[in-house]
């Protein structure tokens, strides 16, 4: 039988809420907090305790799971949680925080006696809700018995990348993976935009590449969100994707690599957000190909 623990989930957006529900279903005691309480309150019906503050949420927690916007947000919330943290608890940091931020987060964990795991996840709303995420994890072998039941509840697969969470090996792999996802998303949007401009039925393009090496399930899935006007609720929001794109560009620059596609993807996503698509699925970067927001 799976070991059952008290797990605190800080951040109940698209991913955090889904992960919290799956933790409850796995039999864990789940305490949740979100800056906007209204986003956390529906989890009470699933059996989670909704806390008024991060410090209250982490009381008696065996595992603290952060699923927040970025590294600075994760550090700020954990500072607020500090009075309630229990030394020896595991901190599973699942925010896509970027390489530079991980060092500071690991230092905070060390200062407060927490066992730190760098553990971003691959997947969007649908696999998160189904408990089918891929967990990329780095952290000490001693203590994994606390976090592996959590990973099993939220994911279908855990990929261990190292034993030092503070080194950010899991985050590094996540940025590499996300660079591919963002490039494919941008290419999908441009294919649809060019098809529209040249009066080409997108289905003719899909038929042209069907079954060959250029065919991709991801292309068809993201295209369908645009063509069928199913961009809300987002699987992964434009604003969050733009943040990740900037983290990728910065990581490349700090290591002597110019990432032109990632830079362009960030600009497209930011342009789409400025047009009013920030809360829609990242496939809405399609609209950045046009001067004005369009529902076509």
Strand arrangement in the largest pleated sheet: 3-2-1-4-5-6
Q: The biggest beta sheet, please?
A: 6 strands, parallel
Rg over CA atoms, rounded to whole Å, is 20 Å
Strand share of the residues? Answer: 5-15%
The helix content, as a percent range, equals: 40-55%
The structural domain count equals 2
What is the fourth-level CATH superfamily of the largest domain?
A: NAD(P)-binding Rossmann-like Domain
Q: Count the E strands.
A: 9
Measure the end-to-end span.
Answer: 52 Å
Structure description:
- With 296 residues, this protein is α/β, with parallel strands linked by helices.
- It has two domains: 6-167, 3-Layer(aba) Sandwich (Rossmann fold), CATH 3.40.50.720; 172-289, Orthogonal Bundle (N-(1-d-carboxylethyl)-l-norvaline Dehydrogenase, domain 2).
- Helices cover 47% and strands 14% of the residues.
- The strands form two sheets. Strands 3-2-1-4-5-6 form a six-stranded parallel beta sheet, sandwiched between helices. It has a three-stranded mixed beta sheet with strand order 7-8-9.
- Strand 1, helix 1 and strand 2 (29-33) form a beta-alpha-beta unit.
- Helix 7 (169-197) packs across helix 9.
- The longest helix is centred in the middle third of the chain and has 29 residues, at 169-197.
- The model has no long low-confidence stretch (mean pLDDT 96).
